[in-house]
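FIELD: query
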Amino acid sequence: MPGGPGTPSGPPGGKRPAVGLQLKLPCATLEEVKRRYGADLRQNRFFIRTRQPRPVDTLVRLEAQLSSGAPCFRAAAVVARVQAPPAEPGMGLTLLGVDEGGRNLILALGGKPPAPLKLEAMKSWTAPSVPPAPPQPPTSNPASTSNPTSNAKGAPTKPPRPMSPPARQGPMIGIDLGTTNSCAAVVRDRKPFVIPSREGYNTIPSIVALSEKGKLIVGHPAKSQLLINPRNTVVGAKRLIGRPYGSQAVTDLAGRFAYQVVAGEKGEAAVKLGDRVFSLQKISALVLAEVRDIAKQWLNSDVTRAVITVPAYYNDNQRQAVREAGALAGLQVERILNEPTAAALAFANGKDLQERVLVYDLGGGTFDASVLELHGKVYEVISTGGDTFLGGVDFDRTIVDHLLGQFKEQNGIDFPGDRVALQRVTDAAERAKIALSEQLEHKVKVPFVAQVADKPYDLESTLSRSELVLLTGHLVDRTLKVCEEVLGARGLKPSDVQDVLLVGGQSRMPLVRERIRNFFDREPSKAVHPDEAVALGAALLAHSIESGSIDGMVLIDVLPMSVGIALPGGRFKKVIERNTSLPHKRSYSIATTRDDQDTLDIAVYQGEAERAEENEYLGTLTVPRKPRGAVGFEVLFALSPEALLTVTAEERGTARSISATFSTKDAPQGVRKRMARDSARTPPATAAVAAAPAGGGLFGWAKRLFGG
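FIELD: result
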């Protein structure tokens, strides 16, 4: 088995020095272990952070636990390299043998496990445990944690005991975590079923509220207090999750909600309910936990695993945040699935289709368009695009603005209403929009909506379908521009699509169907339920994963937005282009260019704009620099099948490890200042992009970067 420098050629034994080491990992689930340590484990390696590393060739008896104390894996290992200050102190291990839990973990990551662990041989080793470094508090946000790969902490050794992965209980379900409503489904007798809520609905509102008694409530009970307590009721969390508080996106959105959007502990967007601050991951986790509890009750079985869907145009930070929300809800997230792809699974299930389809997904808060080619049980996404700031709430807001304009025209004063009054108007606007899908005219009346100089005012108006078309037609046109762009990216025309699937509650609008009919010159398909198709498709994938059938479905997805780095002067260099098939790897070669700087900063962004600042900031790689031209680095960008990014950095031409950090704590403004300063002092760093073979099994961010 290949290893690093000093790897012994034979198995453990004899009088060679040995130590016992027990680790409690900062991970609640195996999926977190995969994300944090996957890049290492896939290559049968593991890095231990400690101030007193053992010498090279020391044998190690390793026992790893989850943060709850549940067993994760056991391994026999050897110290292959030692890392001393100024780099982060620790030792790199090469795994010589693993138990069944470790074997399953490495196989799931796409690696080749070492030999099965011989328990009797391990018991014969005797040595003191490795003194640990001071513990680093674990964080629950993978997008803002430095060095997760090095967060393992040592503890006094304990006698080895049989270990196995945490039990997986109950069937795996599919969950559509929506902006307005969420839905869960499961497969029974090879047929997907939607799991009804306690109230008998097929969906539950994605709403979390703090009641007057200080209790958190979710779903329908939370929605019932929306009109009377909007300040403490969170709606539309899906639009904010995974976004930095200081980003322009959050600034634009914050004023649209009645509740207070604040900065979280790590600079991310969070919400304040009462005197408590909640992360958006926690808010979404409460919705997912409610869905899980409903599923447990309906299935009469525990539920611990799920496939969760996200908009196809979500960036890496947002996908990671949804994964974390699932973990906080007590779910092992087996797969993050794009919503349009899930809808296509529901549409094609059992039909053995050979055609090209476009999924038009217009939900409560986001819009996605994806083109898929269906070949029996092979579902290949060939192009995708979207707008995470376009959905039903934007239609409602346009109607609200119209109604408030009429209020001013009728009464001669600006609308002075408070948050409660504004929420009542928003609720009336939504009901009018829904009613006009079946009626040609609807009367809107919101009594006692304001009071000025002790005089009460009502809001009264009559809204027609033709007026609604004039008010919202530009929003529908925006969706068609996305469709045109998605088709054009692959050189396709509307006539090249055999079926158009309408998904999402807002797609029910007659204007949407009319514009789609005109654009594609065909009637959109009615074969899928707009509100349930995504959850049903997620359940089908969950069943395929759970059954492990060799004739199961095959998904080939694409990267929704390009990933790249910022160059001096603020330019954006794409490393992996959008619509690249997943999984995929690509390396970026870079060399130092100045003698007077201690570190090399590589700012990573995601988007399509030519200027880095106009794209989504993902984080900064900070690599210790050597004299100019003295050393080069290979920075590897690896994307998993679900578009989750792993970044690693290695020093070329040497076996020495490079200690680096990946941190999103640095604001984009700070990155821009450094880039501008570098640009004024020196030309861009020498860099070249080289393609690498596609590969899979890599999960999440690796924010501690190392070579060797």
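FIELD: remark
The first strand starts at residue 18 and ends at 24.
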